[in-house]
Amino acid sequence: MIKILHKLNVFYAWRKIAMAVFCMASIFTVNAQLSGSYTIDSSVATNDTNFNTFVEFIDTVNTYGINSPTTITFVNDEELDTTAIFNVIAGANDTNTITIDGAGKALIYAGVDSSRSVIDLNGTDHMTIKNLTIVNSGTHVGIRGIWFHNGADSNVIEKNTIEFSNLSEGATSADLGGAYIAFADEGMILNTYGDHGSYNKIDGNLMTTSNGNEEGPYAGIFMTSSSSSTSGTNTIDQNEITNNTIANFYYYGIYVRGTNGTLIKGNDISRDAVTSGNANSRLYGIYSYYNKST
């Protein structure tokens, strides 16, 4: 009888150890760096290959990073309660890149004064965002689609639709106005200088308003590094703005100031998406000032 009890005690002790090891392994799996392919599907619980929400993916990649090329694909539309903020992602480099494939789905957020952008790239590098409909349904004149700042480098924004669906008032001041894509130091003022991001490619996107009478954002794309000089640490380098369609804006289609080597090519800039909204009395398709071409 004593021997049987001893064997049972040993058995239960080993079972507890095995369960502890399993739990530790499970925690490690959930909290490990991301690698490979994942989906965002709200109909499926978060598991090894799926995130129930885009916010869960953001929290995970911001916290743990990646260790190989990583792709995340949308399965359904998602509406956010706040801006989707990506920070510096550990492990991201020229080889280990992050791809967010919208697969034609929509990411929707109603920007407000204190949180204006749908997507915020805060020092984020080596990320591709493609095939995503990015909808800002806010009414504030300063709303943004994507915001680059704090040295967000080597990112690709391609074949997306960036749509402002409820903007009804234009702004003549960069202190108030917004943009479909903004390179700026502050979240509330466009005309702020610094190292916002270099070597980024913005290619083949549609940027538009969608209710017919919107006056449009202050600028389609707003990129500024320095107020009066192309030398020094403020200069951002070698960004490319190519083959985009900017279908409505209030003041500037593309505004670029104080940068180095910015390529602007093959863009279709118009106000075709608006039927009755006003524009500023002076419209600029492309405004380039204090830039250099090396």
Terminal-residue CA separation: 87 Å
Number of domains: 2
How helix-rich are the residues, as a percent range?
10-25%
Mean pLDDT: 87
- What structural class do you assign from the helix and strand content? alpha/beta
Write down the secondary-structure element order.
HEEHEEEEEEEEEEEEEEEEEEEEE
Gross morphology: globular
Question: Widest sheet: strand order?
Answer: 2-1-3-6-9-12-15-18-21
Low-confidence residue ranges? 2-8, 17-30
How does the major sheet shape up?
A: 9 strands, parallel
- Number of beta-strand segments: 23
Radius of gyration: 23 Å
Give an account of the 3D structure.
This protein is an alpha/beta fold. It has 2 domains: 1-31; 35-289. 14% of the residues lie in helices and 33% in strands. It contains 2 helices and 23 strands. The protein has helices at 2-31, 54-64; strands at 34-40, 50-51, 66-74, 78-79, 84-86, 98-101, 106-109, 117-122, 127-130, 133-136, 144-149, 156-158, 161-164, 179-183, 201-203, 206-209, 219-224, 240-242, 245-246, 252-257, 263-265, 268-269, 284-289. A 9-stranded parallel β-sheet has the order 2-1-3-6-9-12-15-18-21. The protein is globular and about 55 Å long. The model is unreliable at 2-8 and 17-30 (pLDDT under 50).
Helices and strands in order:
Layout: H1 2-31, E1 34-40, E2 50-51, H2 54-64, E3 66-74, E4 78-79, E5 84-86, E6 98-101, E7 106-109, E8 117-122, E9 127-130, E10 133-136, E11 144-149, E12 156-158, E13 161-164, E14 179-183, E15 201-203, E16 206-209, E17 219-224, E18 240-242, E19 245-246, E20 252-257, E21 263-265, E22 268-269, E23 284-289
Parallel strand pairs: 1-2, 1-3, 3-6, 4-7, 5-8, 6-9, 7-10, 8-11, 9-12, 10-13, 11-14, 12-15, 13-16, 14-17, 15-18, 16-19, 17-20, 18-21, 19-22, 20-23
